[in-house]
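This week, look over our next protein:
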Amino acid sequence: MKNSKSLLRQSHFLGTKIRNLRKRNNLTLEDLSARCIKVSAEEAPSVSYLSMIERGKRVPSEEMLTVIATVFQKDAHWFLDDEPEPQDITPAKGNHGGISGMALEPSFLFSSEVLQIAIPEMLSQTGTTGRQFAHLLIRAHQEHHQNHFPDLERAAESVGHKRMPLHVDDLVEIAENVGLIVKWFDRASEDIVDDQGEQSKRVISSFFEPPKTVYLNEQLKKQQTRLKYDLAVHIGHCVLHNNDGMKSVMVAGRNQSYGLHEDHSQQHSAATLDSQDILHAWRDFECSFFAGALLCPKVPFRQLLDRRGYEINVSEYLAVSESVVMRRMTAVSPYPHWHYFDAYAPGKLKAVYRGNGIPLPWGNMRLVNDPCQHWSVFRMINASSTGTEAQISILNQGDIPKIYCCESIKVEDLAGNHHVLCTGIDLNPALDAQGHDSVAIATELKFACMKNGGETAIPNKIKKILLSVAQILNIAWIERGINNEARLICSRGIQCPREPKCYASDICQQNVFDVQQIQAQIIQSLNN
């Protein structure tokens, strides 16, 4: 490293490089300062000092620059004038929304008038209920906004005052302060058979009765984390909707999307799109998001995750469920490319969030018989192991291979059903942010897996790059995933990328009626 006088003469672009790296990694000044403190509390810059460094008002000491360089996994010399900044380190500008859609042409077919006529018939033909359709709309809205709902965050902070952790007594006090009366009932879980013939258990955990009474099941006393969540949801209903009663019964069990309602839409024809279905589903989502924001307020929870490397076990410190922690990660992290799955055996998704656009591990939200067995969320359903498990996966999105890392854990709901929670990120944007060619790296890792039957130890060259990215993102379970074998995964069926394929797809492909191929053959024969 150069002496201090040399550093001063070579620091003209230092502030710009730090700012660009910070923005490229979606970090605030507070985030970067906190990351530096983890490296060295003595040499870490304060938020105000970082701001002055970025504006060229101050030059960091050699020791401070070394700390900043460590956070971004760069050599300290890289920040000086004689090391040019690659163009691909410059922060991308433009739309910061979530999953991009597709242009719908001709546009007149997608007018509100035509859709209002077509949607009920579409639901009737597909067997989709009005409630299921509502959840699809909500999920699309959630993914478009990358799980950011600042109005709901502010509403939760207005009653919780950003306190963390909140105890049951705190939530009971908040409930009383907003005018709720709490009463208890006792009802055990019941065995049910769903519409796919699968047996499971279901239990009513709580419900609201206008004008201001919340009924809680005595079973919740055995599971304090769920008790806190239910209370937080009902507080949300009171704060957001003034106890108007448009609130679904809260039920624990595998059939409940968002775990918040009894799917009464099955009581009438799927062709009937009841506007109340959509309203109830949206209210349930709002109250659920509010509950997470109340139990894990954004700023202190983000700081806690940063200190603990985004470990799932922060749920034990806060005395909240792993589900709340994993969902809130997707909402508070500065890195936007997250996904979350909640899966019940044998192949049923209860909740989904895909801010990174990852395909579903099986085709839809219903039960299917042939999901890809190599997704972490599906492998753990029948596994006897406890604790969390990290996995690096390679999945084609269209023709582009993507590298994902996830952390999964098996838990038990209030009714006694086992299910698997999985949260993960798309690593390609993080690789690109550091100037790497993510597609080339993913392609190399994909072929390495294919040569080894679908899974392989990650080559040292790629491992080193991924470890660097993991440290920049400050997510500890990425490092654990890198030390495990990487696995090829697919949506299902004939898309399987493994050699040999997991599915008997060759026979299916022999009989595919490929219109474009036939068209090309006709033109070729006529030209000859």
